[in-house]
Task: inverse folding
């Protein structure tokens, strides 16, 4: 019944977009708001859980795809980034892209509907937490120096020349699929932190230390201008705490509303100042930026720029750039080959951002979306693969629930380690998925399995006693 209802609702919104005026973005924006209300309400009613990674993705897509149309709906000007009014595209072109994105999200929700399932009997899984801690420590030792070096250099660059000038600074970041052994190794840092938290789940002092360390590190990365992936990693930490340590109460969840509002102000402030050389401005200038700008509007406008980026693809493909025929998905697999010799991995050169950014800017990327990537590959037929993505996100939610219920911390690690990458599909292509999943999720899992097998072979009684002691500590 749930699937049928959502199919009917998707059909209704498809019809509304088909009947809507090609030049009336405000009308489509109103339809889009009602579509998101339907998706939010229907999923919440089916899951009865507000701490919900699927709802988080819906919220992100709402702001990234409907951010500027909502401001346009209320006649609010966007001045900090290219907007609907200032882009080189016509209203009809932008509106066509918006309707394509909204249709895709309706199909995304239909795909997720097929994953709805009931709560099953609890089936605890024995996990060698000692192995998780050991591999977490090893990966931490390997990745800490390049990761912290990257953090320091990002901070220095942002404070001295501004984030926008990062490619002109002494410290040059790789673009696309980042290159070099240090960047490859640094990628294990987040995985090591998740392993150390989950491996020490029965040790309150140690897990609290690693949670605190992870939060401080991520916040520093956000301050340095590296916002997207690090905010999403913080979301993984929050979900980890809720599903493996202690569920948040309703009162605590309400506090997240205030934290979220404070986060919006902080992110918007960072957005307004990160392109300045912070060492050359004082506190008074920062206050001036805050007083002269509506930070919430600026952030919504910047997030909503994704619509302009997607419009670029729809306008110039296939008129200037032919459809890619699924090549970006093949290239995603090729990124498993380590990028040790290039600033930009050859497989990433055919990605949406790399191909289309020059139509808008000369020296910076424009971002994209997993939806517009599907269009770039298959045109309007790309809508047919979008339900598959919804199915994956629905499965991710229920897999996290099952892993939490069964205390399967390795499975929980698997989903939480890849969650930031999946959530970032909302404004990026899938080009880095298999690399991130293969290196920073699968390899740590294989290492834990090998450590467990080796330890069991050398001293099987020791493994059993460690697991028993950890379980006793947790329940005491």
Result:
């Amino acid at each position: 019944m749930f699937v049928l209802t959502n199919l009917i609702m998707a059909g209704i919104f498809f019809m509304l977009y088909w009947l809507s005026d090609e030049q009336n973005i405000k009308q489509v924006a109103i339809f889009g708001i009602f579509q998101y209300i339907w998706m939010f309400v229907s999923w919440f009613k089916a899951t009865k859980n507000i701490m919900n990674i699927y709802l988080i993705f819906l919220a992100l897509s709402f702001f990234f795809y409907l951010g500027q149309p909502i401001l346009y709906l209320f006649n609010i000007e966007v001045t900090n980034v290219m907007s609907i009014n200032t882009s080189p595209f016509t209203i009809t072109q932008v509106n066509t892209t918006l309707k394509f994105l909204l249709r895709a999200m309706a199909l995304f929700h239909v795909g997720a509907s097929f994953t709805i399932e009931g709560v099953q009997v609890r089936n605890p899984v024995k996990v060698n937490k000692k192995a998780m801690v050991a591999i977490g420590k090893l990966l931490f030792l390997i990745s800490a120096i390049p990761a912290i070096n990257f953090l320091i250099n990002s901070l220095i660059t942002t404070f001295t020349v501004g984030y926008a000038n990062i490619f002109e600074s002494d410290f040059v970041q790789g673009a696309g699929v980042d290159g070099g052994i240090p960047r490859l190794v640094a990628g294990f840092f987040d995985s090591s932190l998740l392993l150390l938290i989950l491996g020490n789940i029965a040790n309150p002092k140690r897990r609290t230390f690693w949670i605190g360390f992870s939060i401080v590190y991520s916040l520093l990365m956000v301050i340095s201008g590296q916002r997207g992936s690090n905010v999403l990693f913080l979301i993984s930490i929050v979900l980890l705490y809720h599903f493996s340590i202690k569920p948040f109460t309703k009162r605590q969840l309400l506090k997240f509303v205030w934290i979220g509002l404070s986060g919006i102000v902080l992110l918007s402030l960072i957005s307004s100042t990160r392109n300045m050389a912070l060492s050359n401005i004082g506190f008074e200038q920062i206050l001036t930026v805050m007083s002269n700008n509506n930070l919430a509007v600026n952030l919504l406008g910047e997030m909503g720029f994704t619509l302009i980026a997607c419009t670029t693809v729809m306008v110039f493909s296939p008129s200037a750039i032919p459809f890619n025929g699924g090549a970006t998905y093949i290239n995603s697999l090729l990124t498993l080959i380590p990028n040790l010799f290039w600033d930009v991995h050859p497989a990433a050169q055919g990605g949406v951002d790399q191909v289309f950014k020059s139509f808008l800017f000369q020296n910076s990327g424009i971002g994209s979306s997993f939806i517009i990537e599907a269009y770039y590959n298959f045109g309007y037929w790309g809508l047919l693969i979008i339900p598959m993505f919804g199915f994956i996100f629905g499965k991710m939610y229920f897999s996290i629930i099952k892993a939490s219920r069964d205390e399967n911390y390795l499975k929980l690690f698997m989903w939480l380690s890849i969650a930031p990458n999946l959530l970032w599909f909302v404004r990026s292509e899938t080009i880095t998925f298999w690399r991130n999943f293969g290196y920073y999720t699968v390899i740590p899992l294989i290492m834990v399995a090998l450590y467990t097998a080796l330890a069991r072979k050398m001293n099987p009684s020791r493994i059993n006693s460690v697991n028993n002691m950890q379980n006793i500590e947790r329940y005491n």
The radius of gyration is 23 Å.
